[in-house]
Every structure is written in C-alpha cells, then in structure tokens.
What does this fold into?
Amino acid sequence: MSSSAVTQPSRLREYYELTKPRVVMLIVFTAIIGMFLAVPGMPPWDKVIWGTLGITLQSAAAAAINQIIDREVDARMARTCGRPLVTGGLSVTESIAFATLIGLLGFVALWVFVNPLTALLTQLGLVGYAGIYTLWLKRATPQNIVIGGAAGAIPPVLGWVAVTGEVHPHSLILFGIIFAWTPPHYWPLAIARKDEYAEAGIPMLPVTHGVDYTLTQILLYTFILFAITLLPFVSGMSGLPYLFGAAALGAMFISYAWRLKFRPQEGLAMKTFGFSIVYLMGIFTLLLVDHYLPR
It folds into this structure.
C-alpha cells in the first residue's frame, strides 16, 4: 500500500476532528428539531436538507475557528492536547483555509437555497461563538459561559427560521432552554478540569470563585432550567406527554446538581456533565414526539 493511500484518510480524520464533530452533531440535532416544530405537519424537505447542510457547515467552521484561536490554550490542557493543531496534524494555514471554505459554502447554501434571514442569523451565531466568545469572553470574565451561551442557543431558532422565514416566540422558548442549560452543563466539566483551566489562564467560575460557589450556581441554574422547560406546555406549544417527560428529566438533573452540592463524590462532576447532554437530547426528543401526537 502506498504512503499516500495511508496518509489521505489520516488527513481527512484531522479535518474531521478540527470541526468538533460531537458538538456540531448536538447543535445540528437541535436545529433539525426546530425545523419540525415550526410547522403543524411535515416541513418542506428542500428546506430541511439545505438548512441542515448550511447550518452544519457554518457550525463546523465556527468550531474550527475556535480551535485555531485556542491552539495555545489547548496545548496546555489534557482534554484538548490531542487536537490536530496542537499535535501538528494540521497547520494554521490549512485550518484557516478549511474553515473559510466550509463557512462560505454554508453561508451560500443558506442564502441561496433557504432564505437570507437564516444565513444572516447563522453567520451571527458563528461570529458570536468563534469571535466574541472565544476571542474575548472566554478570557475576560468567569461569566463567559453564561453570556456566550447565546451563540450556542441559537440553532433551534435557525431551524425554525429556515422553514418559516420568521423568528417566532416559540422558537425563542427553545433558545431559552439551551441558554439556561449551558451553565449547568459546562460548569461541572470546569470543576473537573479546574486545575487545567487555572494553568491555562482561563477564568472559569471554579477558578475565580471556588468550587463551592460554582456548585451553588449549578444548582440554581438547574431550577431555572426546570422552570423554562415548562414554558412549551404553558404556551400551548406542547402537551401533557412533553410536560411529564420534561418534569422527570428536570428532576433527575436537579438530583445530580443537589448531590454535587451536598453529597459530592469522586467522578460525579463528569457524570453530571455527561447526563446534561442526554438531558438536552431528551428534552428536544420529547418536544418532537409530542408535536406529532394527536391532541
């Protein structure tokens, strides 16, 4: 087998890892749910296909830019030291060219085949995450996750706008769910990696205010999140099946946060972080299933 045949799949893998695929998949998942929730029946499939493609490409570009900017920080953290820009698998020039290409392709796909508003809002999300959050907020304030969470909360709004061409109040409820979810999702990870963030000079809340204060904030945010997840039912967007499911998931999340605060155990922070991802996927799956159940 020639060396080029071995190298080519390896290079593709490096580009794939540059896009933070797990993060992008969660982003795109919530965007697709937003598309289906936007209409009573099935959304137009051309909008779903092109919208998904464009949002995926733009999200991947934002993730790549994040790694380009954070490459020196990533090199000092065990969680991120294997990323392609740190290991030398990709050069900065290659990464910038790749991020620019897929970002432009995503913007054009959304502008031409979906609608200009979706293209502009998606670009705004890219700038918010890769620019405002990564370049400034992440290094400027321990509230970086709270403020920067707006960029990560926009995908279901993008999906909704891709299908309808407008920002509906119900889409803002979806935004609110992810916005409130982001701090109690990320802060348990920040607690588990507190020393690494301190070494890298990133002012995460456990570093600047201590673990106990952060645990209190996590618990408070899970209660806020619980309340916001009731809004789809209160607003008539969803029915009783969603309400019961969301309440059960919310109670589980609060239980994790409560144990973190008052009965901490080794490894519980990372278990809470892992559950938070399952939680968000569960909430949006419940919204989708409830949407198509007969009332």
Remarks:
- The chain is about 80% helix and 0% strand.
- The radius of gyration is 20 Å.
